[in-house]
């Protein structure tokens, strides 16, 4: 079955995107949401259930029999994840020779939201949700390998959910065994082919720092980063300490996993909000 699906996939081309109104099984394509080096994402209508979904499909020219086998195993693994901040897998199947991963369609991505300033309190709440999602995955012995704003989906109720588990892991294993991930949010050791839970922690630190300051730290990651002075004006020193440890260049100095980082972040949450509100009242 794997070989048969692969032969069907080989006959398709990456440069042949699906057009609006194309039918793919029970799905009717509406538009392409994103195009990446490994896969495309489409908005589609589930004509049976009457709901819109996001469909992620690996490019056919990178699909191999071994990769298809891994996709199936990863899909089974992701289907078992059950956490309010992890986007549930709706379906994973072969449709007309394509491997299709279907999930709930969010309102926007965190990347979209970062185009505008995020209030400090909102950024702190989003940070806790982000770290909670990755902490749960780490407790399940799963490394995401591609923590970035585009992979966090914002729902209409304000909840944030982490997506792209299985596909990120397969891409990391198969496309480029060293350095797979998104460069701007990748830990240095992951760029050298040694990803770990501590790499996910580093990526989380980068996103959270950007949410609070509007600046994304860059190599060589020497503290203080651009935007640190702005962070010191509104953030409790203990929150800054949490971020600094998450963003340590040496993995041995970081939190061992997102679960440990979540514990530290939760402990400083109340003091952080009190500190920020006192600061705001002073300058009001």
Shape: globular
> How many runs of DSSP E, i.e. beta strands?
9
Average pLDDT rating: 85
Order of helices and strands: HEEEEHEEEHHEEHHHHHH
Strand content: 15-25%
Largest sheet: 6 strands, antiparallel
Number of domains: 2
CATH H level of the largest domain: which superfamily? Transferase(Phosphotransferase) domain 1
Number of helices: 10
What's the end-to-end separation, in Å? 67 Å
Briefly note the CATH topology name of the largest domain: Transferase(Phosphotransferase), domain 1
Low-confidence stretches: 1-6, 8-15, 175-180
Portion in helices: 40-55%
Strand order of the largest sheet: 1-2-3-4-6-5
Q: What is the name of the CATH architecture of the largest domain? A: Orthogonal Bundle
Structural class: alpha+beta
What is the topology?
Elements: H1 2-10, E1 23-24, E2 27-35, E3 39-46, E4 51-58, H2 65-79, E5 89-95, E6 98-104, E7 108-109, H3 110-113, H4 120-139, E8 152-154, E9 160-162, H5 165-174, H6 188-191, H7 197-213, H8 228-234, H9 237-246, H10 258-283
Helix pairs in contact: 1-2, 2-5, 4-7, 4-10, 9-10
Give an account of the 3D structure.
This protein is α+β, with helices and mostly antiparallel strands. It has 2 domains: 2-104, 2-Layer Sandwich (Phosphorylase Kinase, domain 1); 108-283, Transferase(Phosphotransferase) domain 1 (Transferase(Phosphotransferase), domain 1). It is 43% helix and 17% strand. It contains 10 helices and 9 strands. It has helices spanning 2-10, 65-79, 110-113, 120-139, 165-174, 188-191, 197-213, 228-234, 237-246, 258-283; strands spanning 23-24, 27-35, 39-46, 51-58, 89-95, 98-104, 108-109, 152-154, 160-162. The strands form 2 sheets. The chain has a 6-stranded antiparallel beta sheet. A 3-stranded antiparallel beta sheet has the order 7-8-9. A hairpin with a 2-residue loop joins strand 1 (23-24) and strand 2 (27-35). Helix 2 (65-79) runs antiparallel to helix 5 (165-174), helix 4 runs antiparallel to helix 7 (197-213) and helix 9 (237-246) packs antiparallel against helix 10. The longest helix is centred in the last third of the chain and has 26 residues, at 258-283. The N and C termini lie far apart (67 Å).
């Amino acid at each position: 079955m794997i070989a048969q699906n692969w032969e069907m996939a080989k006959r398709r081309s990456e440069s042949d995107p699906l057009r609006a109104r194309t039918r793919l099984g029970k799905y009717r394509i509406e538009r392409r949401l994103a195009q990446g080096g490994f896969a495309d994402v489409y908005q589609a209508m589930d004509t049976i259930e009457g709901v819109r979904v996001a469909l992620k499909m690996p490019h056919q020219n990178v699909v191999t029999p071994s990769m298809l086998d891994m996709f199936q195993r990863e899909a089974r693994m992701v289907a078992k994840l059950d956490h309010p901040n992890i986007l549930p897998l709706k379906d994973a199947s072969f449709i007309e020779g394509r491997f299709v991963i279907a999930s709930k369609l969010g309102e926007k991505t965190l990347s979209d939201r970062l185009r505008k300033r995020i209030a400090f309190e909102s950024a702190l709440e989003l940070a806790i949700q982000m770290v909670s999602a990755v902490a749960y995955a780490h407790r399940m012995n799963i490394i995401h390998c591609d923590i970035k704003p585009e992979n966090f989906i914002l729902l209409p109720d304000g909840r944030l959910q982490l997506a792209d588990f299985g596909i990120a892991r397969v891409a990391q294993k198969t496309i480029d065994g060293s350095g797979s991930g998104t460069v701007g949010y990748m830990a240095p050791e992951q760029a050298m082919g040694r990803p770990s839970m501590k790499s996910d922690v580093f990526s989380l630190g980068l996103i959270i720092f950007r949410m609070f300051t509007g600046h994304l730290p860059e190599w060589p990651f020497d503290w203080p980063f651009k935007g640190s002075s702005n962070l010191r004006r509104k953030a409790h020193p203990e929150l800054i300490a949490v971020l600094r440890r998450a963003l340590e260049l040496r993995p041995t100095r970081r939190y061992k996993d997102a679960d440990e980082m979540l514990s530290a972040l939760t402990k400083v949450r109340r003091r952080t909000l009190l500190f920020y509100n006192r600061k705001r009242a002073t300058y009001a």
